[in-house]
Write a structure and sequence with these properties.
single chain; 290 residues; alpha/beta; seven-stranded mixed sheet; two-stranded antiparallel ribbon; 11 helices; globular
Length: 290
């Protein structure tokens, strides 16, 4: 058993063979950006109730950090973390108890955060109900990238189940703009989008491996019909409050030529979609870059 920090959650416990996304600063960055936008919104229009669904929660770091940041501003939080790994869920429960005991979580965390088993790829939804925000750091590394691009320590000590999604039926590599891209890493994104729609989510935030995958995810969302979402954008891992040089300014060369805005610099790290009230909740973040 060891520990690693994730923002204020500085003693998240972990084991080999359980994915530890808290070691990725990019995951922390977009989680904090989302929370800060919500907090800024509460300064002018209080939010008394907020339901957050964290799919592929792993050790629970996103769920715990969201609660730590939002609990002082939103009185009635409900956060559910769902994962298919019993080992990860066991650690998530331990992390909840540990950080509450250490005073890093508000006392309400014990009854406002819950972790449960669920399979995002199953035919039936992993959890019932409606959610205001769906956030997920799913497995997104393609089999070929796992074999050739990941570090040996990752291949040897992190669970492949948490890093590489099962190959979709009939899934194989396809050329895009003359280059070969393995899309087997995209397996989770359409189910996540469908679950966000089914749960009437107002915001969806999903982590991606990089800009190329972000473009494919946005294209797939548009392919499903953007009618549900009012808009999508890509947040990059070097957040500087400016639009990326990689395209995506409104109405121009965004993801797949769809006019989707890219924010920040470096690699695309999260696809963010919103509808209805979600637009207002993100306005504080949007104002900083408009």
């Amino acid at each position: 058993m060891s520990s690693a920090g994730f923002a204020s959650m500085s003693r998240l416990r972990q084991k080999p063979r359980v994915r530890t996304p808290q070691t990725r600063p990019e995951t922390e960055t977009y989680t904090i950006l989302l929370a800060e936008a919500l907090i800024q919104h509460t300064e002018t229009a209080p939010l008394h109730d907020l339901r957050i669904l964290d799919l592929c929660t792993g050790t629970g770091c996103i769920a715990l950090l969201m609660h730590a940041l939002l609990a002082p501003h939103i009185s009635n939080l409900s956060i559910a973390g769902i994962d298919v790994s019993p080992a990860a869920l066991k650690l998530a429960h331990r992390n909840l108890a540990w950080n509450t005991k250490q005073g890093r979580l508000h006392a309400t965390a014990a009854h406002q955060i819950r972790f449960a088993y669920g399979d995002v790829l199953a035919r039936t939804p992993p959890i019932e109900g409606q959610w205001d925000i769906l956030i997920s750091n799913p497995p997104y590394i393609s089999p070929s990238s796992f074999d050739t691009d990941t570090e040996r320590s990752v291949r040897n000590y992190e669970p492949k189940l948490a890093l590489v999604p099962p190959s979709p039926r009939g899934g194989h590599e396809r050329p895009v703009d003359g280059s070969r891209l393995d899309v087997a890493g995209d397996t989770f994104y359409k189910p996540l989008d469908r679950l966000a729609r089914t749960g009437k989510a107002k915001i969806m935030v999903v982590e991606v491996a990089g800009t190329e995958q972000a473009v494919r995810v946005v294209e797939d969302i548009h392919g499903e019909g953007l009618g549900y979402w009012d808009g999508c954008e890509v947040w990059h891992d070097d957040w500087d409050g400016r639009r990326s040089d990689q395209g995506g300014s409104d109405g121009n060369n965004g993801a797949g030529g769809l006019g989707v805005r890219h924010l920040g610099a470096g690699h695309g790290r999260a696809v963010v979609c919103w509808r209805g009230q979600g637009r207002e909740w993100l306005r504080g973040r949007r104002a900083a870059v408009s």
